[in-house]
């Protein structure tokens, strides 16, 4: 898969580089913020190789690419350069949600890894045969590893917040590390001894939670460092306006640290702690009002929030809950939604007779079931087919309600998948709470699967199997489109062509840089980079002529087109000219691959073998 080509196609169809204000990515999506959404061609992008779907929500033009998103994103960033980091953005609700997503999304893999380790350790601690294991240094070390992301949360959040707010990542991390330092932690928790900085009082406070008293600490906290980085970003930009550039490297970070340390301890730190407790109190009040209602709403609508990217805005609530109380219920209810999406996708896979739909749905179901990543299931089939999405919402709401009734909780902050299931039976969690969690996710998963299978769905046009045209009894010969030495396609140094995944054909090492029409037909595709041509021949064959390996990177340099897409061509008519020596000098393989892409419409397709060929020699033989 040519990720550079995919990235180029996506950027072209979102309106070009000049229309991209900002781009980020999460597990499965490229998240574009565009200057003008009307310039983006949603329909074309949805049919680009590697793209699953396109969603426009939350002020973002979201291109869903699944597991390949990181590689595509890297190519997108190379093409866009630094422009995505230099645009001044107007503050709005959409921008706030976007920044929250940018801050918390990068932490999810580490949180998921922590949840996996916690689950395994919890399972070991509950089994009689592993009683001795919990007292070993191995258990202590692994348990510490699972807590690192939470204990040093201010440092990690400082980094991601600085990236999102475009200020110094190192200085932000220094602030986060300062709040976690053992000396500062001990000073803040020593409520009996007053402390000051520059004569200002360092605020310390004890809170009563239930029957216990908790002295606040900045370790594991969420809100204080976010407020601190916001102020740091403003201060940093202000200082750079007045301090000469030659002195900025020393004075800006120095002044920032001197100013931010007292602000962190006297103002934003305490305010952040209070805000965190208020958020936790509000959430717990709503939950206490009706756990059943809370479970129903979150379990049913979490998947809908994923569609709009709004679920990221809820993560701070769950993380804050863990930091303050040591448990959270939000991720339990979200688990019901995750498993319901997996079940609905499995129902699609079992019900559909289309091989492509089965493959997409199965992959989505597996991703959601194992690790709780639901985007492939949602965008790959459930949302596209509509009814499975409705079934998932219903089953998720029912599973969440069951969890609410049983007061299911998570003792950490683990993503919801079968691999992290034991993290919901950690220390302080009763067996009955864990049972209600298991029943909830089971009802969500199997309920959505069965409901989807019974209700059914109507496959969209792009998911229905195409009716194949079979050319029975018609034998076809195809001439060489380029002069050179022909050899088997399976010997090509490119896995995609060599595996014949695109179809059977022939490879030719060219001695002349000119591609001719091998038969009469139509130019169905001519890539802007001119390295690949699609031909629909009058004899029924469909050809892909690919010039060189990875030559898309040349962006058309060394290529000249002789025809346009849609043109009729006659046998022997020049289509594209290319500079063989120039392409070689730039380090690219010049092999031309000629592939019959609709070979399944015929009995067999075979190549001539190894031989020197000219434009009049037959090189591909098709048996009808």
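^ Assign residues to that structure.
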């Amino acid at each position: 898969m040519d990720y550079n080509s995919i990235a180029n196609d996506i950027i072209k169809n979102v309106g070009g580089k000049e229309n991209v204000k900002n781009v980020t990515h999460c597990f499965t999506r490229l998240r574009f913020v565009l200057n003008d959404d009307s310039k983006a061609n949603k329909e074309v992008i949805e049919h680009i190789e590697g793209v699953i779907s396109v969603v426009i929500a939350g002020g973002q033009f979201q291109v869903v690419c699944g597991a390949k998103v990181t590689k595509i994103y890297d190519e997108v960033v190379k093409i866009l350069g630094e422009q995505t980091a230099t645009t001044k953005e107007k503050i709005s609700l959409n921008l706030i949600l976007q920044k929250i997503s940018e801050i918390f999304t990068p932490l999810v893999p580490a949180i998921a890894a922590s949840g996996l380790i916690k689950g395994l350790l919890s399972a070991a601690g509950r089994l009689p045969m592993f009683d001795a294991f919990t007292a070993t240094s191995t258990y202590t070390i692994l348990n510490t590893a699972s807590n690192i992301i939470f204990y040093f949360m201010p440092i990690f959040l400082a980094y991601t917040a600085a990236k999102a707010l475009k200020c110094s990542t190192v200085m932000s991390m220094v602030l986060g590390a300062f709040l976690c330092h053992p000396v500062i932690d001990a000073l803040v928790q020593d409520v009996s001894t007053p402390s000051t900085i520059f004569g200002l009082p360092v605020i310390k406070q004890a809170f009563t939670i239930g029957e216990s008293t908790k002295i606040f600490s900045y370790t594991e906290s969420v809100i204080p460092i976010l407020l601190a980085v916001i102020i740091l970003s403003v201060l940093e930009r202000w200082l750079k306006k007045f301090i000469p550039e030659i002195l900025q490297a020393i004075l800006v970070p120095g002044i920032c640290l001197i100013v931010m340390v007292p602000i962190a301890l006297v103002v934003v730190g305490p305010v952040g702690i209070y805000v965190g407790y208020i958020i936790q109190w509000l959430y717990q009040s709503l939950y206490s009002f009706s756990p059943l209602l809370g479970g129903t709403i979150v379990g049913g609508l979490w998947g809908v929030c994923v569609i709009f990217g709004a679920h990221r805005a809820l993560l701070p609530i769950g993380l804050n809950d863990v930091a303050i109380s040591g448990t959270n219920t939000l991720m339990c209810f979200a688990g019901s939604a995750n498993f319901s999406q997996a079940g609905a996708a499995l129902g699609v896979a079992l019900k559909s007779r289309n091989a492509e739909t089965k493959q997409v749905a199965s992959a989505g179901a597996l991703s959601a079931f194992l690790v709780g990543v639901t985007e492939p299931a949602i965008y790959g089939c459930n949302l596209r087919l509509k009814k499975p999405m409705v079934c998932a919402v219903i089953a998720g709401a029912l599973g969440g309600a069951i969890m609410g009734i049983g007061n299911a909780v998570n003792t950490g902050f683990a993503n919801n998948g079968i691999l992290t299931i034991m993290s919901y039976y950690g220390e302080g969690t009763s067996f009955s709470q864990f049972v209600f969690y298991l029943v909830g996710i089971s009802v969500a998963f199997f309920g959505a699967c069965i409901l989807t299978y019974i209700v059914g769905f109507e496959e969209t046009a792009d998911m229905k199997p195409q009716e194949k045209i079979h050319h029975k009894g018609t034998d076809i010969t195809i001439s060489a489109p380029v002069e050179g030495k022909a050899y088997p396609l399976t010997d090509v140094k490119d896995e995609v062509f060599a595996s014949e995944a695109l179809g059977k054909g022939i490879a030719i090492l060219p001695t002349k840089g000119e591609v001719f029409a091998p038969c009469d037909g139509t130019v169905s595709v001519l890539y802007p980079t001119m390295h690949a041509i699609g031909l629909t021949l009058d004899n029924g064959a469909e050809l892909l002529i690919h010039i060189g390996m990875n030559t898309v990177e040349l962006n058309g340099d060394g290529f000249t087109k002789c025809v346009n897409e849609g043109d009729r061509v006659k046998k022997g008519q020049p289509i594209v000219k290319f500079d063989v020596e120039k392409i070689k000098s730039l380090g690219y393989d010049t092999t031309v691959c000629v592939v019959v892409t609709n070979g399944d419409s015929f009995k067999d397709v075979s190549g001539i073998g190894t031989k020197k060929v000219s434009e009049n020699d037959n090189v591909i033989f098709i048996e009808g």
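The first strand starts at residue 20 and ends at 25.
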